[in-house]
Amino acid sequence: MRLELATLKQTEEKTIDDFIVRLKSKAALCAYASDDVKDEAITQQFIKGAIRPDAKKKLISKDNGLKLADAINAIQTYQASIQDTSAFNSAAAGQSTVI
User: Fold this and answer.
1) Total structural domains within the chain
2) CA-CA distances (angstroms) from residue 76 to 1, 5, 56?
3) For tag attachment on the chain, is the N or C end more exposed, with fewer CB atoms within 10 Å?
4) Is 97 inside any structural domain?
5) Spatial distance between the Cα atoms of 23 and 8, rounded to a whole number of angstroms
């Protein structure tokens, strides 16, 4: 099971939240010594398996003691800001063509 966890990757059609659920589900089947060890394994694979290079950089730039909850929060916030920026740019582009 740990090998399967270590090879999970986010796919294009899946959101970050979907990927987190898959990681947590797979990790729940592994016999980790503690929840802290399990969370560390999930966090490492979360970083490694994220599909967007910019998201990986965001997580890697955090300190070495990055906790799972903090990693999830950072990426969800980052993802929301990208979506907001995209929506703003789309709206701005649409408005500029209206006469």
Assistant:
1) 1
2) 27, 21, 12
3) C
4) no
5) 7
Task: Let me know if residue 11 belongs to a domain.
Answer: yes
Question: How far is it, in rounded angstroms, from Cα 26 to Cα 4?
Answer: 8
Residue 98 lies in a domain: no
Q: What is the pLDDT along the chain (99 residues), one digit of tens a residue?
A: 899 999 999 998 998 899 999 999 999 999 999 999 999 999 999 999 998 888 888 888 876 788 999 999 988 888 888 877 766 677 666 654 444
Contact criterion met (CB below 8 Å) for 58 and 78: yes
Write the CA distances from 22 to 25, 52, 63, 84, integer angstroms: 5, 17, 25, 26
The CATH number linked to 29 is 1.10.1200.30
Mapped onto helix, strand or coil, the DSSP state of residue 66 is coil
